[in-house]
Amino acid sequence: MSESTSRAESAERGRGERAKRVRMTPAQRRETILTAATGVFAETGYQRTRVSAIAARVGVSEPVVFQNFGSKAALYRAVVDRAVSGVCETLTEAVEAGRPVTDLLAGFLEPGHMERFHARGSLGFLFADAFTLTAEPELREAVHAAHRRFADTFAELVRHGQRAGDLRQDLDPQVAAWWLLSLLHARTFRAAVMPEEAGLEGQLVAMTLDTLTRR
């Protein structure tokens, strides 16, 4: 292959790639940035993340990210909102599809699942990081809203379990929801300091389910 032919083919590929980028709608561009930002924030946390790293993962310049979201804080708020919505919708859809609440909670709280869910790069790590940012003026309300969304979802799961006869009728759904949320949020603390973590974590889950279901 001649050098001129190689250059021509490279130029053609470049035009094709540029054409693909041009054809991307604003909504698609924002979604692409959100997906990349979710991964980067989940790997490094809000404070350590640079917008340049997100832009590089998307394959655009920093100004493109700012044009779409305005600021790093605004992008983070959008990421957290989308991630929380995704988890809450997954839980709700599972119950509406007929999965028992006790089975759903057992699977969600299972130690192995919790370990994967909170690993760096996962949504659990993203949520744990978000919950440390309540002192950030630009993020405080978004973090509080995330807490409330999770609590409301868990409360509705408890109500569903009560209607099905799987959970205790004397439970206050909101109290139970915040108890479950606190249990999840303290997972990072337990992993760092609790001795015999694997065994005790399983016992905590068993005790939680027993308390929710004991007549």
From TrEMBL:
<dbReference type="InterPro" id="IPR001647">
    <property type="entry name" value="HTH_TetR"/>
</dbReference>
<protein>
    <submittedName>
        <fullName>TetR/AcrR family transcriptional regulator</fullName>
    </submittedName>
</protein>
<keyword id="KW-0238">DNA-binding</keyword>
<keyword id="KW-0804">Transcription</keyword>
<feature type="DNA-binding region" description="H-T-H motif">
    <location>
        <begin position="50"/>
        <end position="69"/>
    </location>
</feature>
<dbReference type="InterPro" id="IPR011075">
    <property type="entry name" value="TetR_C"/>
</dbReference>
<dbReference type="InterPro" id="IPR036271">
    <property type="entry name" value="Tet_transcr_reg_TetR-rel_C_sf"/>
</dbReference>
<feature type="region of interest" description="Disordered">
    <location>
        <begin position="1"/>
        <end position="26"/>
    </location>
</feature>
<dbReference type="Pfam" id="PF16925">
    <property type="entry name" value="TetR_C_13"/>
</dbReference>
<dbReference type="GO" id="GO:0003677">
    <property type="term" value="F:DNA binding"/>
</dbReference>
<keyword id="KW-0805">Transcription regulation</keyword>
<dbReference type="Pfam" id="PF00440">
    <property type="entry name" value="TetR_N"/>
</dbReference>
<feature type="domain" description="HTH tetR-type">
    <location>
        <begin position="27"/>
        <end position="87"/>
    </location>
</feature>
<dbReference type="InterPro" id="IPR009057">
    <property type="entry name" value="Homeodomain-like_sf"/>
</dbReference>
<feature type="compositionally biased region" description="Basic and acidic residues">
    <location>
        <begin position="9"/>
        <end position="19"/>
    </location>
</feature>
